[in-house]
Each structure stands twice: as C-alpha cells, then as structure tokens.
C-alpha cells in the first residue's frame, strides 16, 4: 500500500444521466486550486498534467436519495495523452464507468443500514461510496491511484457526506485491508480486468466480508468475473441481476459455516 499516511485512512468531510455542473465559476476555480494543492505533493513528484486540473463537476442521476456530484477531468482523452507522454499509466480511474454508476444506483435503491462498516475497492471517482455514506454507513473508499483518492475525497465533500479515504492497491496490498476488516459490506465495480486482480480476489475477498455481511460486485460481463464467481460459490451464496445490457450486479453472502 502506498499512502502519505500508511495504513491510515484520511477522513473527508466530505451509461447514467448527466446534469450540468452545480458550481459557479468562482467555486470551480477554488476546487481546481484545492486539487492543485493536494495532487502529487510527495517529495520529487512530478507536477500534475494540465488536463488533470482542467476539471468539471457533473451531477449523475442515481435514483432514490438524489443525484451524486462527481469531479472529473473535462477531457479524459487529453489526460490520457498527457499521462502517456509522461510514461504514466492510463488513468482509467478518472472516468465515470457504467459499472460504478450501476452500483451507485443499486445502492440508492437498496441502501446499506446506517452505521455499518463499508469498504469500496477501486473507488475511482467515488460514486458508490457517496451513496453508501449518504445512507449513514461508515465508509472507507480506497483506490490504488493517489489521484483517484484526492478526487474521491473532493467529491465526498461536494456531496456533503463524511467518509474515510485511503490509497490502497487492494490487488497488491490486500493484507492491509484485511487487517482493518472484516466489513459488513464490500463494494467493487469493474475491478476484475486483470488476471492478477482475479487471483487477488479469490484469496482476499472471503477475508474482507464479515459473517452476515455481503459483497456487491458490479461487472460488465468480464471473463475474470466469471472465474471469480465460479470459485466463490464454495464460500458465498450468490445472487446475480442484470442491471442493463452492459452490467450485471452480483451479491455475495458468506455461507453460515464460512470463516472471514
């Protein structure tokens, strides 16, 4: 796990229909300034590319409980170009992917109980965590990319909800999360896109979910998800629901005899 405060979550006071930005121009300028102060602040870190600070704020309709407000780069293709020129990975975290929005809508329709412990893996821009926090859950939103954690923290604040955020690559540093668990609810949206993540999920996910808890996975029908779900039947009871043509929502609950 890479973190400015290792293993310590940071508290943030903190496809779908898009709505115009809810921020006035001066508020948007303040938001960009805040991002600029918090992105890539480590010693020797390269400054953020211009496209990472050229952001917009958009509302996304998720159903019951109101819209969610997300902060995202105005031109993702330009950001990808600038990151690629600097030798950085493709910033997949910086887009509101259908699986994340589908999971947010599912949580709005069937929200977690107030006060339960919720962990989101690979939170990206943070839509599912926002909905869970709005319901009163105690949320820890995690992502392996430090920029994603900063954007998610700002989105939580704009939605006037409180949650913890932490920079954790769950596929590589699952032990750090297991040490914080188990959790009543684990959230994951489109995270099984590599063989390494599939292997990590098989080893880690049963340890993250508390007895009586559940894991909600939104997935765009990836082969990796089929492999994980087939193996997970030994540990979890599985329910699957087509949310739309592109995304399936899976709910995994530990068998009564399964240990976390």
UniProtKB/TrEMBL annotation:
GO MF entry, a single one: methyltransferase activity
Pfam families the UniProt entry points to: Methyltransf_16
Stretches the record annotates as Disordered: 1-21
Keyword line: Methyltransferase, Transferase
InterPro entries, per the entry: Methyltransf_16, SAM-dependent_MTases_sf
Biological process (GO), any one: methylation
Stretches of the chain forming a coiled coil according to its record: none
Record PANTHER family: HEPATOCELLULAR CARCINOMA-ASSOCIATED ANTIGEN, PROTEIN-LYSINE METHYLTRANSFERASE C42C1.13
Protein name, UniProt field: Methyltransferase domain-containing protein
The species this protein was found in: Baekduia soli
Source species taxonomy: Bacteria, Bacillati, Actinomycetota, Thermoleophilia, Solirubrobacterales
């Amino acid at each position: 796990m890479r973190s400015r405060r290792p293993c310590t979550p940071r508290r943030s006071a903190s496809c779908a229909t898009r709505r115009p930005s809810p921020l006035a121009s001066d508020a948007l300028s303040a938001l960009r300034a805040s991002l600029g102060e918090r992105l890539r602040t480590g010693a020797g870190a390269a400054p953020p590319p211009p496209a990472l600070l050229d952001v917009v704020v958009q509302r996304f309709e998720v159903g019951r409980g109101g819209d969610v407000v997300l902060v995202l780069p105005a031109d993702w293709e330009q950001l990808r170009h600038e990151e690629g020129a600097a030798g950085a990975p493709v910033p997949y975290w910086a887009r509101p992917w259908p699986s994340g929005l589908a999971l947010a809508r599912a949580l709005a329709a069937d929200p977690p109980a107030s006060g339960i412990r919720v962990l989101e893996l690979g939170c990206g821009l943070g839509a599912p965590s926002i909905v869970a926090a709005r319901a009163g859950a105690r949320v820890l939103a995690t992502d392996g990319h430090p920029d994603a954690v900063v954007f998610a923290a700002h989105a939580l604040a704009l939605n006037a909800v409180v949650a913890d955020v932490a920079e954790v690559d769950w596929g590589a540093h699952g032990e750090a999360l297991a040490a914080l668990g188990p959790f009543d609810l684990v959230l994951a949206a489109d995270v099984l896109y590599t063989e390494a993540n599939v292997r990590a999920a098989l080893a880690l996910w049963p340890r993250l979910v508390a007895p009586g808890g559940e894991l909600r996975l939104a997935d765009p029908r990836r082969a990796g998800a089929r492999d994980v779900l087939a193996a997970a039947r030994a540990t979890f009871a599985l329910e699957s629901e087509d949310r739309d043509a592109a995304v399936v929502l899976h709910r995994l609950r530990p068998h009564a005899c399964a240990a976390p």
